[in-house]
């Protein structure tokens, strides 16, 4: 499989969806699903452009936020598609961030046993991560992403210009995953972000960073499409991030903020357990700080994070598998780390009492 054959990255690409449908030999009938915010910001324009190009469009908006990533919302969308007579060849267009991409991807995967999915991601995180690689899912009360599938999009149409409407705090949070990608794979990109940190919203910069990140993600997905081994490297910073999100509740930190704190922890562990140079860890932390990301947590106790990691450990069958960096631009999964090191690092990451 070559994932890049199914990905288009170009400024303005979201205005040319009718050509994408024609090129993919899809029928001139499409179902556009977004949340209410994105439908207003971009959906109405996109529906108008598709209609103008002769595509018959049905559109539907779901409430914004993680709570829409549910079996109940998926059921509503399936019922809507069935009532409106959506057929097996009709493309479903998922227009939005990670929540809509995952939800609508899951809806497309199961409706009529699978209909063509077009991902049009509208956040930096969705453009570089969730719209690439075919993971689609909804949440259960017992946890996030517990029901899902691997269902690659027929096309991911990535338009960096859509990022212009993102609130700055959201863009900054999503930059954590760009820095993460640089730490894992790409020392040149790391330097590029260091040089460009004062112009994070610059459209040409975003196009360059999105393109590089997507190429790296596509490469690892092609190596490990079903997430059975090397793809775990994408979880750099995520072991501590997931514990923070579990203990503090989703929403206490934006995902990227939790990842930034987790990356600081992963680098500190890497210095002690994977020979990462202290100077490289300091460079990573300085870059995250300059981007505007948090360095410490205050909303949890280190012991609670440790306990959350132990529960996580069980579902991975034994011991925590850490992703550690050996240098900037080179990380690897599957490391076992002395628990005493992890506990020390969790204490160091805790913000000093005011
Ligand atoms: N977001 C991690 C992955 O796609 O594997």
Explained architecture:
With 354 residues, the protein is of the alpha/beta class. Helix content is 49%, strand content 16%. The protein has 13 helices and 10 strands. The chain has helices spanning 17-23, 36-52, 71-83, 98-110, 124-130, 168-185, 187-196, 203-223, 238-248, 255-273, 278-291, 302-315, 339-349; strands spanning 7-9, 29-35, 56-62, 92-96, 117-121, 135-140, 143-150, 155-158, 322-327, 330-335. The strands form 3 sheets. It has a 6-stranded parallel beta sheet, sandwiched between helices. A hairpin with a 2-residue loop joins strand 9 and strand 10 (330-335). Helix 10 packs antiparallel against helix 11 (278-291). The chain is globular, with a radius of gyration of 20 Å. The termini are far apart. The chain binds glycine. Glycine binds at residues 129, 133, 135, 227, 231, 234.
* Sheet with the most strands, sense and barrel status: 6 strands, parallel
Oligomeric state of the chains? single chain
Tally of DSSP helical segments: 13
State the helicity in percent bands. Answer: 40-55%
Bound molecules: glycine
The rounded Rg comes to 20 Å
Summarize the structure.
The chain is an alpha/beta fold and 354 residues long. It contains 13 helices and ten strands.
